Every structure is written in C-alpha cells, then in structure tokens.
Amino acid sequence: MSVPTGYQPPPVLLRRTLPNGLRVVLVAHWPTPRAAVSVHYGVGFRHEAPGQEGLAHLVEHLMFRGSANLPPGSFYDTLHPLGGTANGTTHADYTDYFQVVPAQAVEQALFREADRMRAPLFTAGELASQLDEVGREIAGTRDRRPYGGLPWPGLPAVMFRSFANAHDGYGDIDQLRRLTVDDCAAFVDATYVPSRAVLTIVAPGAPETVWPLVERHFADIPDRHRPTVPSEHEPPAAARRVTRVVPAVDRAAVALGYRLPDPARALPDHLAYLVLARMASGWRGPDGAARAEAGCGFFGPLDARAPDALVVTSVLAPRQRPDDFVTELTARWRQLADPDRLATAAHRAATAVAATYRRTHARLDQRCRALGRFELLFGRAELVDELPGLIAGTSAERVARAAREVADAPVAMLVLGPPDVAAPSAPAAVPAAFPVAVPAAGPEAESTPVPPVPPVPPETGSTSTDAAPVTAARLAARSAGHRSMPALARPVAPRLAGARQVRLPTGLRVVAVPDDRADLVELRLRVPLGPAGWGDPGRAGDLLRVLAARTSAAGRVAAVGGELRLGQDGQWADVDAWAPTGGLPELLRVLADVVTPGELPRWRPLPGDGPPASPARRMDDALRRVWAGRPPVVAAPDDLTALHRQVFVPAGAVLVLVAPLAAEALVAEATAALADWRGTDTGGAPGPDTAAPPQLIVVPEPEVVADGGQVHLTLCGREPSGGSAEPARYLATALLGGHPAARLAQRCRRLGYADEVMLARRDVLAGHRRAAVRLSVPRRRLARSVADVRAEVRELIGVPPTVEELTTVRRYCAAQLLTAFDSPAQLADALRHTTAAGRGLDWVVRRPQLLRTPDPQQVSAAVGDLFGDLDHVVVLGAGSVDLVDFP
C-alpha cells in the first residue's frame, strides 16, 4: 500500500540585495528554536595567484581571530556559553563562514559576521599562531598520512593545466611563513567585498523581524572594487598519468578523474553523473579484490563551478596493477551504458541520491550553507528544494549516456604506492605543485581507505591579486566607531505540535511526531538487551548480525531509497532507519521481520568486525554483568531463537517515528505492522534502583600499564528514585562535570593537568538508573584524582553554587538541549534517548524552561543525591589496586 506523504513545501525563500551589493537569502518561519547564519564569499583557492598557494586557507583561519569590535580570541566568548557553534571552510570557488545559535541570539551572529566583513583585525602574534595551526593541518591531512593528497590536492594537478585549477590549495608552509599581516590584509581588501558575498539566514522568526537586523549590521559596510575573477578556461581534457612512489605501503592507491558537465549550463546531464557515481560506488572488479568509491566533485556534489571532476578512488589489492583496475572499471562503465539493463538500478540509485539530499538539507546548518552556496555559484538558492525532484526524475537513458561518455573519455590517473606496483609502463613527470606524501609507517597503511572526497575541506582563507594593497591597520580602521554586542532577544521555545505518545497493549511505547521539514520518515527502535543480553553482549551482537543477514534488512530499505542499521552498545539493541515517506510501509515490514524473524540458526561465535571496544564500553560491560545478576536460563546457550525472544521484548521498548504525517496515522501504521510482536518477558531488571554494597571491579588490560601510564576508571552509584527533582539533577550533573566550565574541568585546568579527563554523566545500566564520573588519569595520580573528585562533590554538597555560576550552567544547558530540534534525524535520536530513559514528551519540550526553576540549594541537594555515594568503582588497566586507592 502507498502512504500519502502529507508533505508540505518548505517556507518561502526571500531575497534582497543591499545597496553595497550584498545578496541576502532568508528562510523565515523555519520550524526550529535555533537559527543558522552563513556568509559565502566568492573567493577560493582558484583565485590564488602564483606564489600565493595556501593564502586562502591561512586567511580563513585569521578571520576567526579578531575584528574591530571583537578583540583577538573573543569571537567565541558569547557564542559558546549559548551552546552555539561556528566554523569556516575554503573551497575552489568560495569560502564560507557559518554559525548555529539559539534563535534569541541571531542578531549576535549577524553582528559577528558583519564585524569581520567590515574590519578584520590581523596581528603578528595571531598570524604566527595560525601558521602553526595551518602547518599541523597540512601535515595531518596531506603530508604524514598514507596516500596523503589523494585525491585532493593531488588529482587536480594531473587533470588540469591552468594554474587556477591545478595548483595545491594547501600550499607550502615554509612559503606561507614568509607572508606578513599586510599581505593577508591586502588579500581580504581585494576579495572579501560585499558585492561578491551572499548572506544566508534560516530562522524561526518572521521576515519583518529579521530584515531590520540585516540592515542594521550590514547596510553601512562599503563595497570596494570588485576582485578580478579568474578565467574559467581550461584546455580540453587529455589522458594523463602521474605516479608517486610511497614508502611503507604494499598496495597501490589510485584516483581517477573525469570531466563533469557544467552544472550551470547542463544541470540534467550533471545530475546523471551524480546518479552514475552512486551506482559505481562499492563496485568491485571481477576478482572482488579492490573496492571503488565514486563521487562528484573534490569536496562534494555541486560544490564548484566548471571544470569539476567525477572522482573514482580505490586502494588496490596487493600486487594488483593500476592499469588492470582501469581496464576493469572501463568495462563496468560500458555495462552501465545499456539503458534497458540499467533501468531498475538507475531508478533505485536516483531515488537514494534524492532522499539523501532531502535528509541533508533538512538539517539546519546544512540547509543554510547549501542555500548560500547554490546562490553564490549558480544564482539559484532554490536548488536546495528542487534538486531531490530533479535527481529522482533522472532517466535511465540519461544515466546510460553519461556512462558511455565516461567510458570513452580521457582519464586522469594519480597513483600512489610501492615501486613494484605503482610504477607506470612509461615514466611520467610529476607536476611541481603536487605534494610529496610522507606516510606514517605501520600496518594500518595496508587497510587505510581512500575516500572519494576529503572528509573536511581545508579550513583556510582566500587569496587575492590586489593591485593597491592596504595595510592591516587600515583594514581594521574601517570599523566606523565602537559597536557593542547586541543583547539577546526572547528565547524561542521548542514545539512538538501534534505529537503523540501511545503505549500499545504489548507494552511497546510508540512516539509519533509530525515533521514536514523533509519528505522522509525517521525511525528509531530501542530495546533493552535485558538480563540475557547484558550478561553476554558479544552473543547479543552476533544475534543482531544474524538478524541483519537473515532479513536482508539493509538491502530492502536501500531499495526504497533509505538506510537501516542494526547495532547494540551492551545496554540497548537499536534499529536506526530512514526512508522516503512513501517507503514507510516497507520500512515497517522490515522492522516487523527484525522483531519477529521466526526460527534462527543455532549460535556460533562469529568473527569480530570493527575496532575493539572503547575503555568506557569495557568498564560498563563489566559492571553490567554484576548489576544484571544471573541471566534466566530458558533455552540452550546456542539457541539464538530463544535469545531473540528474551532480548526483543516489546514491554521495555520504544519506537520513535518522525515524518510529515499525522501522528495518528503513524501510530496506526506501527500498530498494524507490529501486532504479532510478543517476545519472552524474563522479568526485566534484577531488582529496584536501590543502593548496593561497595564494589571494586578490575577489568584486565592486555598491556601492563606503567606507573605513569593512563588509567581509565568509573566511579558510580545507583540513582535514588526519590529526593531531588529532574531539573535539579540535570543541572547538578552539568555543574559537576558536564559543562565546559564544570567544577571538575576547572580543577584540571587549575592544577595544570592537561592529561586528565573527568566527566559526570547519568544513564541507565542493566535496568538501573546510574550516576557516574568517568576519569582518565595518569596511574601515579590515581588515588589523588579520585580523592579530588570526592572533594569536589563534598564541596558542592556543603556549599551551594553561586547564582552567577548556576546561571552560566543553566543557560548553556538550556541552549544545548535545543540542538535536538536541528533536524528530523536529530529529533528522532533525542526522543529515543529520552523516552527510553523513562522520560516523556513533556520533558523534551519543556526542559529548557524547567531548568530555570531550581535554585542553588536544590542543585546542591541533587549533587548529594546523585554523587554523594559513588561506591561502585570500575578500573581498566590499573594493575594492582584496592579500595584504599579510592577514598
């Protein structure tokens, strides 16, 4: 059956251009209690002149380090206390700066962006500091990584001939160190001009409340001469191969580049390559040895003007030759050139790509950045909402034509690897701009994956060819007088309009929330593993892997354009899934098969997959086995069917659905799909949440920890059900160790202990609510650190925090809680976590407001309730310890 989506178009996109040429894009009435602000400047590393390589990167770093009314180091002073975030990245054709803040602080975000647009402040000290930071970034992402520089910035030097397109945007740190603050100021003066920038705002307020703020902060910034735009001319593509011999690896890694159609002139053809890249990702050759990953653009799809590249990367099998890989890949392109054979697969890939765009652009920060990027590059911010439909409508014939063009096109190939594998049949010159990759030695080089694009674009600035440079002092002097940071507006409360929470007769709690930010359904199922799973999380993990294979869950959801993952963390079994709203029936059918799979094969330990468990997970597993008690025995140990029925019990489970549908429809769909789910209730948690005798649990560590080595430990206790109220407990946890200015964090800073980590938390462990402090400390300070934690607790119990201290923590926590509403996916995650811990929808919505109610005395009492008796101690890798170490 099909599900009517009920999806409504997003709020209207509004535009204005200020007299100074600054373009403004506004999406008002966006349904979130937070706001996003971005500024895209039309300058990137393609605008660098010879000798300026890497200047764009450096300037972007400096733009965070001070402006006329924000002294060096103060940019984040009013941002972080509100749980806000800010960052910037540099790309081929633009540099973007973006902030996400509570909606009440949107004017403060505009103030920061306007101040650095008007009069950035560059100093010799900050330049030296940021040069060190840039040097570390270049070393970590390019020079000291196996296969560093592949595909970017190495492949452009092979694909292109013009300096603008081919040079390395990271540059050489020794050359960058010759720059002065005046060089950086001249660059900004010539390129960071209002008429070459786009300001984007996504906020819940009405347009009439936002436009005056834009005018107030940006209208008086003078435009300057327009920067010279680099020529986009690039000679026709030609086949070319460059090889770099890399020590300490035994496989070759390759990056192949094919020219993409210009999205500004041939968008449908460009989108066909996007679908083709999806179909090529994950492809393996006839022998199945080398996996290919494909993507459009060096930093992602539609991230640059032409010329841009379809990039294919792979780490080849040992002894596999790059030429053979290219031959096999070309054969694959020709297979995809048959539209009749391609039809089903092309439709599935187009559906998946379209859904991914919908999901990405439903997230507040990504939506804001995409609007600004598309407006700057293509003059069409509307593409954010138009692209999913355009991609989904891409025909098999157009995708097949793209495959034929790629198969016949000249390919640029960059090869990094050992001499006997990487060597080309004929020597090829290496462009001077291509960096030397110095990989880290070690076995990890064998399996290091090569992504089709870098995980993060270089966080750098932009460069200029200014003919009349100004000094840093003149640039900063453009402030036109002192300006003060604006006051906060009234907070915007979160809302869950139309949400419902229903407990079904089986005991399953269903939380349904209408959300029309994307034509997608987000589904989360959380099930406590129960005593049978808590006692043996490894076997519970094997159960989920068998379930995934038996039901083909991930593949079936992928077929409707979504994703599904099964996982467990020792405490819960989780199903995380999303799909286009029309795929909800199939999503629920897959879920029904997961919770009621029928007979399963007998259990046998499966080979491990993934990294080893974290120290925190290992400690929790050990304590969980103690707190859970002896699991009920209802079947033979190898009976996975019985284990499934003990673990997947609806009475303790929570199902969250967030979609552009009425809550009643979502609940009805879930009820019908899961009507047969029963499970075997074995009694749940072993006893009430009461105190237990003091315990010391030492978790063996394979490696002996020397006296100065790092020790991980957890101090915890069961949280009492009575006493202080939830808001006070929330603030008490943050005040002790869950806030940047928490007491434990301040202690570490005060004593100069940069090698210590102390975090307070509350969670559920083996059915019991728990309060805990996690520590990572040097072995020689183990007893001292534990004593200091207890001393901080006693201090907070005996002397309540000041009003000012509590106000700081309260403001931060209230603002941080709003991040749950940044996207449907984040909302689903937050609802799963909160409701599985026993709290309701009312807490999710009202918690920022409720945090205003406790006074210092109530918070102090809550510290005593939670952390006054942390008598359960779990230690990892401490060698010989006893309770004497833990006063």
Tell me what the structure shows.
The chain is an alpha+beta fold and 887 residues long. Mean pLDDT is 87; it is low at 425-456 and 459-469. The longest helix is centred in the middle third of the chain and has 23 residues, at 339-361. It contains 30 helices and 22 strands. It has 4 domains: 13-224 and 458-475, Cytochrome Bc1 Complex, Chain A, domain 1 (2-Layer Sandwich); 240-360 and 378-446, Cytochrome Bc1 Complex, Chain A, domain 1; 500-673, Metalloenzyme, LuxS/M16 peptidase-like (Cytochrome Bc1 Complex, Chain A, domain 1), CATH 3.30.830; 695-885, Metalloenzyme, LuxS/M16 peptidase-like (Cytochrome Bc1 Complex, Chain A, domain 1). The strands form 4 sheets. It has a 6-stranded mixed β-sheet, sandwiched between helices. Strands 12-13-17-14-16-15 form a 6-stranded mixed β-sheet, sandwiched between helices. Strands 7-11-8-10-9 form a 5-stranded mixed β-sheet. Helix 11 (339-361) crosses helix 14. The protein is 38% helix and 17% strand. It is globular and about 75 Å long.
